[in-house]
Specification:
The complex is a heterodimer.
Chain A (H helix, E strand, L loop, with lengths): L3 E4 L2 E3 L6 E7 L7 E6 L6 E5 L3 E2 L7 E6 L2 E6 L9 E6 L7 E2 L3 E4 L1
Parallel strand pairs in A: 2-11
Antiparallel strand pairs in A: 1-3, 3-8, 4-5, 4-9, 5-6, 7-8, 9-10, 9-11
Chain B lengths: L2 E5 L3 E2 L5 E8 L8 E8 L6 E6 L5 E3 L7 E6 L4 E6 L8 E9 L5 E4 L3 E5 L2
The chains are: A mainly beta, B mainly beta.
Chain lengths: 107, 120
């Protein structure tokens, strides 16, 4: 089974700064990688699919990159509402159950 | 705007069957473009896909839960449902209903989630 490993587990960043979150797959997932944002008490929200395509309504400060086994989510100029937990998910291989363990982005 | 809303008991006894329903509003469940599914998240933990269904009734289950899961659809009510049998405390989680496309298995729409606790 594919294992998705996110790093770091916790990232402390100041508002206005850039945040870089990493996701590594144990085997290639091509570009079939999604990123989600989850705020406390809320459902996850799709941010990025296809490794780099922003979902509808997602601000341009969120960008995704990478392919095969190495992926990055970059949030430029952090806003207060961006502090949350971020998950990556591979959907290249069946079952589409492979989520990373999450990165908590904190102030 | 299409929305998903989970409903069902918040407390289930061990060994019994967990039953949840997701109501789709603002659009039709009978779209050829989407699967409708369930994901759960134990308190303080990560996400796990349980399974999905197409409006025609075709189902796809996580192999790790397949023996205990049944997902069904009622297009007349614009609803789909989850049944998880023989529950234990390990099944305590927030259960989300979700939508994915038939082309790619990422989840672009989520319900707000409902906490189900397994306890006697």
């Amino acid at each position: 089974d594919i294992v998705m490993t996110q790093s770091p587990a916790t990232l402390s960043v100041s508002p206005g700064e850039r945040a870089t979150l990493s996701c590594r797959a144990s085997q290639t997932v091509s570009s079939n990688l999604a990123w989600y944002q989850q705020k406390p008490g809320q459902a996850p929200r799709l941010l990025i699919f296809g490794a780099s395509t922003r979902a509808t309504g997602i601000p341009a400060r969120f960008s995704g990159s990478g392919s095969e086994t190495e992926f990055t989510l970059t949030i430029s100029s952090l806003q207060s509402e961006d502090f949350a937990v971020y998950y990556c998910q591979q959907y290249n291989n069946w079952p589409p159950d492979t989520f990373g363990q999450g990165t908590k982005l904190e102030i | 705007q299409l929305q998903l809303q989970e409903s069902g008991p918040g407390l289930v006894k061990p060994s019994e069957t967990l039953s949840l329903t997701c109501t789709v509003s603002g659009g039709s469940i009978s779209s050829s473009r989407y699967y409708w599914g369930w994901i759960r998240q134990p308190p303080g933990k990560g996400l796990r896909w349980i399974g999905s269904i197409y409006y025609s009734g075709s189902t796809y289950y996580n192999p790790s839960l397949k023996s205990r899961v049944t997902i069904s659809v009622d297009t007349s009510k614009n609803q789909f449902s989850l049944k998880l049998s023989s529950v234990t405390a390990a099944d305590t989680a927030v259960y989300y209903c979700v939508r994915s496309t038939v082309v790619n298995w990422f989840f672009d729409l989520w319900g707000r989630g409902t906490l189900v606790t397994v306890s006697s």
